[in-house]
Each structure stands twice: as structure tokens, then as C-alpha cells.
């Protein structure tokens, strides 16, 4: 406490013991510039240490993230490669199945076509045979009718 402050306290009615006790209390409670500078220095040091730790933690986190990201990329690449391979296999399998089905279908169509040709030939042959028989029957009937007609004309000629 300054001397002028002590005088002012004594003038307003403080006893010298009260002023001394108050001065002692103020000295123990108040911080000096040196205390404040020391505190500022310690806080600065702690802040620097914390910044350094924080930078280290951030660097460590970045490294871990990069590592995790690289592992994830690798895993995704592996999965996509595996999927592509599976899809190629499935497509090849489908193509082979389709080719097999098409070959079987072609065989069935050829077989059906051959069978139909055979049936058509048989039907044509049967119709041709039936036409020949019909022609023969018609010839016989026409011949008989002509014979009867000639006979009728001859009978009419004799009668008339």
C-alpha cells in the first residue's frame, strides 16, 4: 500500500493497526507485475505446449485417416474387381447357356422341318395317287357312257 493511501485511511478514522492489517492483507492478496508476467509466461508456455500437442494429434489423425482411406480404397477396388470378375463369369455362363439353347432350338426346328417335308411329300404322293385313281374311274365311266351313248345313237338310227 502506498503512503498516501495509508494517510487517507488514517484521516477517515482507521487506526494504525487497522491500516497495517489492511496493508498486509492487500499485499498478500494483490498480484504484482512480476507475478502477472510470470503467470503470463507460464500460460504462454502451456499454450505453446497445447498447440504442439494439438498439432501432433491433428497430424496423427490425418495420418490415420489417410491410412484408413487408402485401406478403404483398396478394399473397394478389390470388391469392384471381384464383382466385375463375377459379372464376367455370369455373362459368359449366360452366353453359353443361350448358345446351347439356340443350338437345341435349331436342332428341333430342323427336325420339325424334316418331319413336315416328309409328311408333305407323303400327302402329295397320296393326293397324286388319288388323282390317278379318280382319273382312271372317270375314264372308265366316260368310256361306259360313250359306249351307251353310241349304242343309243345306233339304236335310234336303226329305228328311224
Brief overview, please?
Helix content is 94%, strand content 0%. It is built from three helices and no strands. The mean pLDDT is 90.
What does this protein structure show overall?
The chain is mainly α and 160 residues long. It has one domain (31-159). 94% of the residues lie in helices and 0% in strands. It has three helices and no strands. The chain starts with a helix and ends with a helix.
List its salient traits.
mainly alpha, rod-shaped, 160 residues, single chain
Average the pLDDT over all residues and give the rounded result.
Answer: 90
Helix-strand pattern: HHH
Query: What is the helix content?
Result: over 70%
Largest sheet: none
DSSP summary: helix tally: 3
Q: Which outline best applies?
A: rod-shaped
Number of strands: 0
Overall structural domain count: 1
Structural class: mainly alpha
Q: Are there runs of 5+ residues with pLDDT below 50, and where?
A: none
- Distance N terminus to C terminus? 187 Å
Radius of gyration: 64 Å
SS strand fraction: under 5%
Amino acid at each position: 500500500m502506498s503512503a498516501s493511501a495509508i494517510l487517507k485511511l488514517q484521516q477517515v478514522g482507521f487506526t494504525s493497526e487497522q491500516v497495517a492489517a489492511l496493508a498486509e492483507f492487500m499485499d498478500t492478496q494483490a498480484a504484482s507485475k512480476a507475478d502477472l508476467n510470470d503467470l503470463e509466461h507460464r500460460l504462454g508456455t502451456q499454450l505453446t505446449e497445447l498447440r504442439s500437442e494439438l498439432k501432433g494429434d491433428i497430424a496423427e489423425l490425418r495420418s490415420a485417416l489417410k491410412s484408413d482411406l487408402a485401406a478403404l480404397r483398396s478394399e473397394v477396388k478389390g470388391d469392384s474387381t471381384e464383382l466385375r470378375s463375377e459379372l464376367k463369369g455370369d455373362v459368359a455362363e449366360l452366353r453359353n447357356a443361350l448358345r446351347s439353347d439356340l443350338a437345341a432350338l435349331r436342332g428341333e426346328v430342323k427336325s420339325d422341318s424334316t418331319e413336315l417335308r416328309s409328311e408333305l411329300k407323303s400327302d402329295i404322293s397320296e393326293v397324286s395317287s388319288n388323282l390317278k385313281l379318280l382319273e382312271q374311274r372317270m375314264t372308265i365311266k366316260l368310256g361306259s357312257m360313250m359306249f351307251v351313248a353310241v349304242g343309243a345313237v345306233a339304236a335310234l338310227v336303226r329305228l328311224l
